[in-house]
Specification:
single chain, alpha+beta, Pseudouridine synthase, 2 domains, ten-stranded mixed beta sheet, two-stranded antiparallel ribbon
């Protein structure tokens, strides 16, 4: 799921990254919305937002494809986990980055995700998961765990879920995080016995209905962005082809956003 990078202190701008023509064409093909201030992309699964390991470039570095001569590249307003696909927002100017970063920290954005979970529909079929989370580290890997509100390092975490389509094998759910903790949706769904398919870290199924689940079936489908004057902008991204085919094979109907 998404997490804001704005809480960290400002650092000196990184040196420009030299991209190949194929890389420039690839990241430009991800654009789903653009205006004078914003640039939104439909990030594919498998691409790290920032700080990825073992990759030639992260999305943050690929944003140099949009840099104007003598100007900085667009800035990420939030992040998505490496294996989560969908809408990710950047700001093209410093004032836009500042305003959107503050709005993200104030939880004024609306986020909608789609996820395939198993086995079958959650019980009840919709509800609010209100369970604090705590970050833990094992070696170089970071995890989130459910914890008591009084535990050291406990962070409030709330996620709404709603079942859209279900069979005895799996369900397609719509998820709306009210907070933005690392791995929040993944841990919360696992906590109610419905881990997200392909989520090796938190117990998700690696195959369902005879289909191999090759990646985390979590997609950022829509982002509601606050704008000046009280208006809101809704940016949507349809589920990628692999997720659509996976749902179809399970008999799950995918919505149109």
């Amino acid at each position: 799921m998404s997490r804001s990078p704005t809480a960290r202190a400002e650092k000196a701008p990184p040196p420009a990254i030299r991209l190949s023509p194929d890389e420039i064409a690839w990241v430009r093909s991800m654009v789903i919305y653009e205006d004078d201030d914003l640039l939104a992309l439909n990030k594919p699964s498998g691409l790290s937002s920032q700080g990825g390991r073992g990759q030639v470039h992260t999305l943050d570095e690929l944003l140099f494809a949009f840099a104007k001569p003598g100007k900085a590249r667009p800035r990420l307003i939030h992040r998505l986990d490496r294996d989560t696909s969908g809408v990710i927002l950047t700001a093209k100017t410093k004032p836009a980055a500042s305003a959107l970063g503050k709005a993200m920290m104030a939880r004024r954005f609306g986020k909608t995700y789609l996820a395939v979970v198993a086995p079958g529909a959650p019980e009840p079929r919709e509800g609010l998961i209100d369970k604090p989370l705590r970050r833990e580290e094992i070696g170089r890997e970071a995890y989130m765990r459910i914890c008591s509100p009084e535990a050291d390092g406990a962070e409030t975490a709330q996620s709404r879920y709603r079942t859209l389509s279900a069979t005895p094998t799996a369900a397609l759910v719509e998820l709306s995080p009210k907070t933005g903790r690392m791995h929040q949706l993944r841990v919360h769904m696992a906590s109610i016995g419905r881990p997200i398919a392909g989520d090796v870290r938190y117990g998700g199924a690696l195959s369902l209905g005879g289909q191999i689940c090759s990646r985390l079936m979590l997609h950022a489908a829509a982002l509601d962005v606050p704008r000046a004057g009280g208006e809101r902008l809704r940016i949507t991204a349809p589920p990628p082809a692999d997720m659509g085919a996976f749902c179809a094979g399970l008999g799950l109907a995918t919505p149109t956003y």
